Each structure stands twice: as C-alpha cells, then as structure tokens.
Amino acid sequence: MSGYVGEFISLLFLAIALGLDAFSVSLGLGMQRMRLKRVAIIGLTIGLFHLIMPFIGIVLGQVISGKIGHLTTLVGGMLLIGIGSQMLFSSFNYKSMKIIQPIGAGLFLLAFSVSIDGFSVGLGLGISGVKTALALFLFAVVSTLLAWAGMFIGRKVHGLLGAYSEILGGSILIAFGLTIVFG
C-alpha cells in the first residue's frame, strides 16, 4: 500500500513541477482582459496538451530519447520568448493588432510551448515503467488547475497595474522563455 502512495505522491510532485510553467505563463495571460469562458478554454487546452505531450513522449521514449530531448526544450523556450516579445511590443502601440492571441492556432501554439517539457518527462517515464494512466491524469488535472490559478491571479494584478500589466505579462513570458533556453 505504501508503495502506491509513494508513487502517487511522487507523480503529484512531478505534475506540479510540470504545471508551474503553465502557471507562470498564465500569470501573464491573465493580465489581458479575457472572459471567464476564454480562461476556462485556455486552462482546459493547456491541460489537454499536458496529457498529450507526455503520452507521445512515453510512446516514443525508447526510440528517440537521446537524440532530440534537448531540442524540444529549446523550441519551447523560443516560442515563449516570441509570444512574450509580441505582447511586450504591442503594449507600446495600442493601434496594432496582436499577432499571437490565445485563440485558435495561437492557443495551440501557447499550450504546446508550455507543455513541451512534458514530452521530455514522458521519454523518461516510458523507460521507467511508471503507471502511465495515473501520471497522465495528474499531469492534465494539475496543469489545468495551475493555469486557471495563474490567470485569476493575473486578472487581479491587472486591476492593480492598469496599463502596465501587459508590459509585465510580456516580460514574464520572455523571462520564463529565457530561463528555459539558458537555464
């Protein structure tokens, strides 16, 4: 019994670690004015990608783990830097349209960029023989909850910071992307 509890707790901590990037990015997103429906859709999409990416990693784990593991992290970080830069620069020009918004393809790009580390984790889990269904369930649920929490906290901060909140949100995305690329 204690072995199952220990594995559950380990997977829960791993799920929290994987979901913290979604939380950080969602802080920045929450500073944009979004309806609650959009917040719900973004959180669910991020959770879905936190299920899909580790699953793909688990399936392909033994085949390609040593060849492209470092590349996926670089791509995810660069995507976050690009999204954050666009958000930061658009805050100085209120007439410009946002190129990447958390709608449609932009939402999938965002969800992909914050869940790509789950692919690398999945590679490792595929080799270790962990309980796949439990791990994927925890990754999806925890990342969804953390994304929602980040967006709700970001909404509150937006009310306090006003016009500067989009600059802060873009800066958060850029900083997180740089941390992924260089950290």
Automatic annotation (TrEMBL):
Transmembrane segments: 6-29, 41-64, 70-92, 104-127, 133-154, 161-182
Topology with respect to the bilayer: Multi-pass membrane protein
Key words of the record: Cell membrane, Ion transport, Manganese, Membrane, Transmembrane, Transmembrane helix, Transport
Compartments in which it is found: Cell membrane
A Pfam family assignment: Mntp
InterPro entries according to UniProt: Mntp/YtaF, Put_MntP
Source taxon at top rank: Bacteria
Family, per entry: Belongs to the MntP (TC 9.B.29) family.
Free-text function comment from the UniProt entry: Probably functions as a manganese efflux pump.
Protein name: Putative manganese efflux pump MntP
Organism annotation: Virgibacillus tibetensis
Recorded name of the encoding gene: mntP
